[in-house]
Amino acid sequence: MPNEAEYLASGGQVEIPSVESAMDPGQVLQMADGRAAVLSSRTGAAAGAAITPRTDGQFTMIKAAGFVGLNGGRAYWDFSANAVSFRKVSDRDFYLGRFVGDSESADTTCTVNLNVHEFGGYTIDLLRDAALSVPTGTVAAGGFGLPQPYGGALGLSLTATNEAQCIDLLSVDRVAIAANGIAEFIVRLAANGSTSAVDINVGVANGTSTTDADAIAEHVLFHIDGGALDVFAQSKDGTTTVAATDTTVNATAGSAVANRLEFWIDLRNPADVQLYVDGVNVLPVTVFRLDAGTGPIGLLVHLEKTSGTATAGPLYVDFAAVRTAQQ
What we know:
Blueprint: E1 28-30, E2 36-38, E3 58-62, E4 74-78, E5 83-85, E6 94-99, E7 109-114, E8 124-125, E9 131-132, E10 148-150, E11 153-158, E12 165-171, E13 182-189, E14 198-205, E15 219-225, E16 230-236, E17 241-250, E18 260-266, E19 274-277, E20 280-282, E21 298-305, E22 312-323
Antiparallel strand pairs: 1-2, 3-7, 4-5, 4-6, 6-7, 8-22, 9-12, 10-11, 11-22, 12-21, 13-18, 13-22, 14-15, 14-21, 15-16, 16-17, 18-19, 19-20
């Protein structure tokens, strides 16, 4: 009688009986179950050979230049470039793991912890966990109102009704300012607002406002004025206020993958918060501060107009989460 189970290999090794083409030592590939793997053999493999690549462990990998990798951040394999990136596009790119340590923009290598939690590991996930949303204005079915689901994303919009309108999305759970948080957002701005009466804000805050995100007592926000595409950044902690400052990055309105903006807020030093747009450190000399704040802070997406018939959105929120660490 055969055993009910017979050991084949560790969970970090999965055999591929026959590879389609020759492989080099250290080559990165995607397994049939979607996981990333590395051929750790020193000799590579010929076409048709059986291989047992590793699907766990830390590896030094080729890194694409032009972006910063933050410790614990998401790492993807850029299939066409054969290098590590911070995001995937509509290609054969796949999730790789998490960056180990910070890597600079000019670095050509980085360390990746293979297959560590793609969407786990976040203390708060705005699309997974409880959130609050309060509309200011006339709510109408199919019109202005609570954020609308679009697949796994949420969309916030303002309509042409002649009135002040505001709609937000604020996480119920919060984290301490000193929790070494790194907040990550991925958004698409289908329409950035027909006039300057519109304000769009994405970031972290200790609360919300039914009319004006600038009035929130403690915040670090990326900000876009309606009728323009300049991405600004601002902060307030009850002692120091840094007014909206141009990051020199411009958004491109639209709903496609190419229109995604990825915002990171690095709170590991609350006395000098670092901000990133699409993996690039923006305004590194400007000192955004939260250290005088009392917190706790949550994730916030905020869309408002002061008056008139201006429209905006949808502002699609594809991802919004914060991860924290002991150090």
